[in-house]
Amino acid sequence: MKDLELLLKNIKNKELLPIYFFHGEEPYFMDVAVKCLENEVLEEDEKAFGQTIVYGKDTTMAEVIASAQQFPMFGNINLIIVKEAQDLKWNEEDVKVLEHYIENPVPTTVLVFAHKHKKLDSRKKVSKILDKKRFLFHSEPVKDWSLAQWISGECKSKNIKTDPEIPVLLAEYLGNDLSRIANELQKLKIILKDGEVLNHQLVETHIGISKDFNVFELQKALGQRNAAKAMHIAHYIGKNPKSNPFVMMIGNLYNYFSNLIIYHTMPGQNSSVIAGAMGVNPYFIKDYAEAARNYPLKRATRVISILREIDLKSKGLGANQTEDSELLKELVYKILNVDQVKVKA
């Protein structure tokens, strides 16, 4: 969500809007904003009479607007929060009622909608009015390529110092579940001592991600063309499919070799520029430089073809169904011997 920090700052400073309509595919940012409104708009002793929380499936738009039009019984503000607003049923009359209220909100009411998992239709009049009034806030998912960067920012905001590899490792293993990532980081913040740096050992101990047998180490071993280490890691990962889903392995290796191709297309550029194009921390450029020597552009392109071939096999296309553990070992072997294996066009 754009300008989330500014939005939270304004709420805490009591610079409030009459309407907040949060919508979009990513629920985490909405949860953060709504929680801030719950905590900051009213004092604890005002909440009993001034705060109303309802759920979309249990109410109607007409009831919500009727509540919003009431003046506070005590205090100066009525806070009305509609959670799971995507479950509200809107008929044409409801839409007109909402549009009218948006144009003429009650100044003593703060009306909040959390419309999760999907966007409002931007073509609709109600969306255009909300947007024009700057009451509409779109909560977009963090793109996979920028997830590690987002985690790094969250660590900084929580004053968690990390080794450079840690945001990448967490992104690869926790995926795009921002709520889970935030919870894990909060847990780590409580555990870490003052000045302690979050490293692989702490991540392995408290989150369960192995510091030696993970896709990050597999990438590094493949980049170095260290056959013994890469096959050893593949064997271990294959024995722990729940902790290492094959689809995640394929996705991360595809991103890695795609980044390697980007590296080849930017000769002479400085590390920061290349890292920016890849969406990675500049710390890792030295690893890509080594991998680039082992995988020239033509070889890296062939690896992408191998990854696509194995991905199709994993989906049962063009071959008998093979266990993921065996497919991973086949994949690693073919990458290491990319010049000798046949690659399907």
Automatic annotation (TrEMBL):
Cited Pfam families: DNA_pol3_delta, DNA_pol3_delta_C
EC number, UniProt record: 2.7.7.7
GO annotation, biological process: DNA-templated DNA replication
DNA polymerase III delta N-terminal domain ranges (all copies): 20-138
InterPro entries per record: DNA_pol3_clamp-load_cplx_C (IPR008921), DNA_pol3_delta-like_C (IPR048466), DNA_pol3_delta_N (IPR010372), DNA_polIII_delta (IPR005790), P-loop_NTPase (IPR027417)
Reaction(s) catalysed by this chain's protein: DNA(n) + a 2'-deoxyribonucleoside 5'-triphosphate = DNA(n+1) + diphosphate
Keywords attached to this entry: DNA replication, DNA-directed DNA polymerase, Nucleotidyltransferase, Transferase
GO MF terms held by the record: DNA binding; DNA-directed DNA polymerase activity
Nucleotidyltransferase keyword on record: yes
Domain DNA polymerase III delta subunit-like C-terminal: 214-319
Key word Transferase present: yes
Family: Belongs to the DNA polymerase HolA subunit family.
Protein name in UniProt: DNA polymerase III subunit delta
Species annotation: Chryseobacterium lacus
Lineage: Bacteria, Pseudomonadati, Bacteroidota, Flavobacteriia, Flavobacteriales
Gene: holA
